[in-house]
């Protein structure tokens, strides 16, 4: 009897070596795929964080623009009131000067 397999194939060890090598390549490919998927998840998470920050900045910008508009309205109202008071003071000073000038005449 012979140690050779009945199917006529040669030494079975090279087939096992091929399977082992293919298994190692498959495991390496799976590891690389897993690493790529993790990098993609990280990139997606970073992208989502950036989108959230941009949205928050947009909301802050809108709020600040509204506050600025309100401040401008108040400033204009104060300037107008200041002008009106200044005109009234000028008129009062003019009246007082006229009264004083009239009182100084003999």
Q: Strand count, sense and closure of the main sheet? A: none
Distance between the termini: 158 Å
- Rg from Cα: 45 Å
Strand content: under 5%
* Counted beta strands: 0
Helical residue percent? over 70%
Mean pLDDT: 89
Our count of helices gives: 1
Order of helices and strands, N to C? H
Q: Which consecutive residue ranges, at least 5 long each, have pLDDT under 50?
A: 1-8
Oligomer designation: single chain
User: What is the overall shape?
Assistant: rod-shaped
Secondary-structure-derived class:
mainly alpha
Describe the structure.
By secondary structure, the protein is mainly α. It has one helix and no strands. The longest helix has 92 residues, at 13-104.
Kindly summarize this structure in a few lines.
The protein is mainly alpha-helical. Helices cover 87% and strands 0% of the residues. It is rod-shaped, with a radius of gyration of 45 Å.
Topology readout:
Layout (H helix, E strand, L loop, with lengths): L12 H92 L2
């Amino acid at each position: 009897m012979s140690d050779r397999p009945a199917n006529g194939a040669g030494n079975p060890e090279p087939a096992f070596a091929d399977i082992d090598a293919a298994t190692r390549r498959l495991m390496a490919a799976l590891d690389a795929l897993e690493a790529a998927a993790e990098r993609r998840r990280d990139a997606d998470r970073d992208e989502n964080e950036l989108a959230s920050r941009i949205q928050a900045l947009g909301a802050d910008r809108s709020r600040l623009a509204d506050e600025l508009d309100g401040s401008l309205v108040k400033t204009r109202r104060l300037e107008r009131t200041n002008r009106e008071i200044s005109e009234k003071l000028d008129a009062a000073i003019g009246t007082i000067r006229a009264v004083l000038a009239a009182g100084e005449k003999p």
